[in-house]
Structure formats: structure tokens, C-alpha cells
TrEMBL record:
This is Acetoin utilization protein AcuC. Pathway: Ketone degradation; acetoin degradation. Pfam families: Hist_deacetyl. InterPro entries: AcuC, HDACs, His_deacetylse_dom, His_deacetylse_dom_sf, Ureohydrolase_dom_sf. It comes from the Bacteria. Belongs to the histone deacetylase family. Residues 28-325 form the Histone deacetylase domain. Keywords: Acetoin catabolism. SUPFAM superfamilies: Arginase/deacetylase (SSF52768).
Amino acid sequence: MSATPVPAVPTLAVWSDSLLAYNFGAHHPMSPIRLELTARLADEYAIFHRPNVTLAAAEMAGDAQLETVHDPAYVAAVKAVSDNPAVVDEERGLGTEDDPAFPGMHAASALIAGASLQSAAAILDGSALHAVNFAGGMHHAARGKASGFCIYNDCALAIQHLLDRGVQRVAYVDVDAHHGDGVQSIFYNDPRVLTISLHETGTHLFPGTGFANESGGPGALGSSVNVALPPRTGDAAFLRAFHAVVPQLIRAFAPEVIVSQHGCDNHARDMLSSLRLSIDAQRQMMLDMADLAREVAGDRWIATGGGGYDVFNVVPRSWTHMLAIVAGRPIPLHSEVPQSWHEYVEVRYGQQAPLYMGDDADLWWRSWEVGYDPNDSVDRTVMATRKEIFPYHGLDPWFD
């Protein structure tokens, strides 16, 4: 297991309270409270004030920028429902139960997209090696349709910005409980982008996609990688799957920049998935991504948030760990949650906050090198992915 500290490289954190405007309403699972509490907890740890961290307010992505990954007619449709939330556009997924319209939807969504665009721009101009947008990770939005609480696909926008300015290879790694279908679909036939998604199988969970045979379009075979894990996959099995697929493909692909999506709805407490991960495992994969970025991509790394619906217990801790790791000084799992934050959650929201920054989980996992067990459902799905994808990258599905 990696415990290597992340170097304190120049880091951009994009955050401002304006990002709280992305709000589908009081009864929607994607509550902006999760962002507010993450920012407050990160501030308790003074992450935004570290000498290597630049904190920037989010800036809206313009229409021309959004249209590098979204159809112009779709951007116009988002503006229409933003101006008149009574409009329902089922064809484009707007005004639906998952993506209800609200006043200012376009601006709020474009701010999140702009924050990831700013992250990519900072990597390109060299002002930062690491960048983080924990409000981002809207990975379900397709070119012409909203989906799964996602209006504009900020991850795809950041990737496209990198490509448009000369980057030849970008790797996208997504560990959200739900398949990163929007990013996959946008780059499905682009060999410059390797998309890797580890998620709960689509036979059980939205969006119903993300199987091993979704391996890329005719011009990019092997560029789309999916590990569809069974319900109740816990820490040891998830980390085994991650380490049996992600490092090997990242090293073979040799990206110039890594973009990662760290949806924390894979946690055992989350109500929208049946995976059983801990904060400890989520943090471990953040450390692993940091290691891979440093080893393979010249330390150029953009990290985003994503799903996560236990807004008091899980999301703030997980993404505060992400911010700390991106900024180069991880927070130990045994650290006590600051008392002032704990009291704020209780007084402001009437909720009991967790006492520690970790879940005291055992993170030992069985490495792939010790052997494949055909009776293990996780091993079978990992092998399906390796057999489908590894040969395209000159790797042996049984041994590499």
C-alpha cells in the first residue's frame, strides 16, 4: 500500500461559495451542503492557506468553451430551462426527476465546468502541476443530454482543453460508484484519451452501462476500460481490482496528464450504491493516483469530486483528504475531526459528525500477482477487463 507523501508542488484549488448555486432543491440527493461542509473542513486544516496552494474563485465557462464537448443546441436548451424552470425537455434530460430545472441552472453548471477548465489551463501554463475542483466530477453529462445529476461535463471539458492545446495523451480514472458514461461516450473514438472506470455493475446500478466489452470505438480500440464490480464489493476487493488494472494501463499508455474523478458514493454509508468502501480506501486510491501522476505523467494531475450523498459523515472527510493529498501533505486517518467543525455541523444542521478522519478500516488486499481465483466474482470481472483490454496495450492479461 502506498504511503508516499505527495511533494508540495504548485497546486491550484478552485473554490468559491458561488459553486453552491448548483442546487436541485431541498429534497434532491445532490445537496450543496456537501460542498459547503467540505470547504469548511478543509479550511479547518488550513489547506487553502498552504504556501504551495493558490485558491482561485470559480469562473464560468463560456458557450464556445462548453460547445467543445456539448452540442450547441443542448447548451441553448439548458439556458432555456434555466430561464423558465417550468419547461421540461425530456429528450435532453432537463426538467426530469434526476435533473430538475432551477433558476440559474446554466450559470451554476457553467461555473462548475469553468472550475475544471481553470484547472486544465493552470496545468498547461505551468502555474500548477496539481489542480483540484471538488465541486466537479459531473461525469454523466453527454454531448447532448443531461443525466444523473450532471448538466455540463466538466471532466470532459478539461480533457478537451488539454487536447486542443497540444497534449497528446490524457488518462481519465473514475472510481465513482456509477459508471463514468458521459466521459466515455465523448471520447469513445479518440485514441488520445484513455478512460478507466471502476464502478458497481450496470446490471444493478444506474446508468446500466460500463461493461468490459465497451472497449472503445473503431478508431480507439482499447481506450475505454471498464471494471463492473458486483454489489457489496468492499475495500479489499475494490483495491485489488484497482491495482490489477489501473497502474498497468497508465504505465503502458504513458499519459502526459492524469484527470481523476473521486466520487465518494462508493462508501458503505452512501444510499445510492451498494458498494462497501471506507474513507480509508478512498484516500488510498487518491494516494495511488498521486503516485502514478508523479511516476508517469510528470506530476501533472487534475482531481475532481463527483457523486457522494452522505453529506455529513462521508463527503467532507473524503474530499478534504483529496484536497490535502493534491496539495502534498496528507491528513493522517487517525486525526480527530476538528471540534469547531463538529460543533458547527451539530448546531447548524442538527447532525452528529464523525469523530475521526478515517473509518479505522483494514486496507490489506490480495495482490493480483498471488493468483486469479475463478470462483471469486471480483476476480472474474477483473479478468474480463484484462482479457478485453490488455492486449491492445501490449500487456498479457494473465501476468502483467
